[in-house]
Each structure stands twice: as C-alpha cells, then as structure tokens.
Amino acid sequence: MPIDSIGTIFGETGFADFRFTVSDPSTKQGDYLKIWHEIDGWVLAQVVAITRLDEDRDDSNADRVVAKAMVIGSRQNRILRVPKTPFSPGDRIFHADPELIASTLGLTRGNVYLGLLEGQRIPVHLDANALVQKHVSILARTGSGKSYAAGVIMEELLDQDIPLVIIDTHGEYTSLKDPASEGDFEYFEVVPAGYAERLTIYTPADRVLNPGADTVFRLNGVNLKAADLSRILNIQSSSQMGVIYEAIQKIHAEKNRYTIDDIIFEVGNSNGNAKWGVLGVLESIRETEIFSENPTPIQELVQPGRGSIIDMKGVVPDMQAMIVARLCEELFEARKINTIPPMMLIIEEAHNYCPEKGFGKTVSTDIMRTIASEGRKFGLGMMVISQRPARIDKNVLSQCNTQIVLKVTNPNDLQAIRKGLEGISVEAEAEIKRLPPGVAMIVSGDIERPIVVEIRARKSRHGGKSASVIEREPRREEQRVGREREPLFAPEKMGEVEERVSATEQKPLEGKKTSGLFAKVFGSGKT
Question: Structure pTM?
C-alpha cells in the first residue's frame, strides 16, 4: 500500500457514506479525506466516526481500526455534486490537500476574512454582498466571543467601504477607533489598525453622560404625526390615543409647523383624565431632548466607507427601543427611495429590541421584522447579536442566511438555535455546548456545509472584555506556545484548482488533520 494512503474501503458502500480500514494510526475523527471516483474524479469526504475492533485473533495485531466517512462531494463547473454511483470496496483513501478542501467547501470565494478552518491553515472567507443582502446573526453566551466576532465582521465591512450603522447598547464598539495592542496577529496574518477616521460616535443622551461621543444624536421632532407618535411612544390605550389625535388636529388647524412643545401644550388644554398619562410620557420625552428641530440627517449617518455608532450608554431601556424603532423606520424608508447607499444595520443585544412572543413586545419589534423580511430587496442588511437566542423573535432569526454560533449552554437557547437556524442538527446542538471561546460554527449559503472556524484576531482594540477580578486569563496566542506556525494556505486560481481536481491522475499530497471538533457536529452522516 502506498505510503500516502491512509486506508481502504471495505464492505457495503454507498454514495453518501462508506467505511474503511485505517492504516495510518494518526487518522482521527474530523479529518478531511479524498477518494478517487471513476466518474467524478477526486471527491471530498470527512471522517465522522472511528472504532477499534478486537477480532480475537491469535496474532499480535488483533486490533483493527475502522472509520466511517461522510461524502461531501466534488465541485464541477462551480457546482458541488455528490457522486451518484457508490465507491468500490478496495478503493484507497488519502488525506485531502488544502486546495481541494477550500475549493470544495467554497472557502475562497468571498472577501470577508473571518478566520481559519478549525484545525487547518485554511482561511475562511464570506461574500460581503451576501452578508448585507441576506442578513447575519451572531449568537453566543456571555464571554464566548460574540462581540469579538462582531468586531471582526465590522472591520471587514469597513475595509470593503460598506456603510455601517451600529446600535451599541453598552458602548462596546467605540474601541474600533483604536488599533489593537494585543492579539495573535502573526498566526492569523493580520496587521493592527484603528478606524478612527471612519467612525463617528453618536450619543442619544448628552456628552456629559457620554463624554466619549463625538456628537449628539437627535430625531426629527417637527410635525410628528399622531400615528407615528402613538407608535413610538407605545401608547396602547384608545382614550390616550384619542387625546393625541385631537391635540394634533387642533394644532394643524392653526399652524403648518409644530414641535413636541406645541403637542404638550395642546394636550394640557384637553379635557378628561386620559391626558395626564399622555402628558407624563410626552414631558419625559421632551426632557431627554431626543426630538429636535435640528435632527441628525440620515444621509450623515450612512456614508460609503464610514460607520456610525449609536452609543446607548446613559439611555433608559424604554427610550432605547423607541430610538431604535424610529431610526430603523427612517433607514428603511430612505433605502426604499434610494436616498442612502446600501448598508448594514448592526444591532447588539437584539433580544431587547425584537423579543420573542412571551417575552414582551417593544415598539421596535415590527420594524425589525419588516427589515428582516423585506430589507434585502432594498439593500438594507441587518446583523443581530444576542446572548439569548430563545428571546429573539423567531421571524427575525429565521431570516438570517448566515449564522455564526459560538458557545451556548442554556437549554432554551440551544432549542431555539436548533429550530430557528438552517443546517443546525441535533449533533451540532450538542457540540455547540463544547465550543471553546473564540471558535464559532458558521452556517452560510456561501459555504456548502456548516464549518467550525477559529475567529481571527481583531485589528482594532476589543472593547467587550469583562473586568478582571484576580488576574487575567492567558491570551489565545499564549495558549499556542510550542505550536509550529505554518504559512496560511494561499488559494490558487479557481481554474488551476479545477484542472487539478478533475485530472485523471494526481499524486496525493500529505494532508493536515483537524482536531476532530468539526466532524463531531455531523455524526449523523446526513448530507
């Protein structure tokens, strides 16, 4: 048997999976394989299970190692195909080379660099257009790296000159302005960089409460319609809604331009006890000064190659939802009439703004559902980030074509992920609980199968770190002491890869092996 062969197919075979005897003792679960098929050429597969058999023989080599592999397929004319005829017993198995893995899984077609395929030196890229057009979700428990991963995507989108509007609930992303001072830059082959010249930080509060902001953010407070005002203030009582309608009708009869002060004055002059609840809400809104005669122009927020961070520090939760609702409505309407360029709306702690039924409803829920279902038609992408997947509106979550899932352990959250996200199996649900920090499972229409990725080091400073109580934990690069660094796999031109893959003979290359985490996810062997 040739030295580069790691085993031989035996027994009953099919085109979806097969078993083989393992001759290379270093072979492990999760390794990528290649097998020559008489019709389709080199076909990619993956080890999903390994067992050791004691055949109770007299010789000293009684144990036999048997592996089960799942067939992924081969790429022909850029289309992934699974062989329609089974492999033959006796066919030899080889380790897959990086070119075949990357081209078959579709890892080289995008321009957004997320990190490295787990256990490999193969960069994983996604397509920026697909991310914006088809929405993204990032889901993880606290401390698993969701804000870090989100920061990586923000950096990549800014590098592609895609406009960003970021709803920053806790002020985590203002650190994008500063270059990172620590990180495993050499391992991931990235260079530290800050984005200060591309970012503007807005505060809906004031610069006394949020001194790090560049300027204040204000909504248009001129000529507010009764229906809009009732919706953004989340007024449910019909009697209170009647008070608002009556007040605005009286104002319209006297003037063409009015502000919230005029509405408060007219509501105060109305009869009935319902006005007192309305006055309380209106006066609290006025005190925040969020509605202004000089609002922040939507064209200022959305500019090519720039990001606008709405830093919600110092803003009460109910007010945050109202701001998000109004801003989302303006962004959606502006994209419909093409007064702003295509963009990505990023919403941290999304469960606060579009909660699932049973967890309440906020004033921003409806417009977020609308953007999730219709925004892609107008070039308004949305990225939702949350540590509580079970509490996000399932209609919003199900519209995200790219899902980035880091470690999640809460049973309700795991169930929500399994039910709401395409491509997540029961086996994946169990594996998600064991993902180490900084490692994510990615399900995307751009990638042929769910994969496990080690998120790359951020170029900018990470602002979502928890405060240390005793002493810091070792950084990721410190945990890699002693690991031999190999150069990243540089994909060749697609034509050259396809030519080699489709060749009738090819000398198998010495492959690199995964750590087994990816394949455990797909233990069912389903394609």
Answer: 0.83
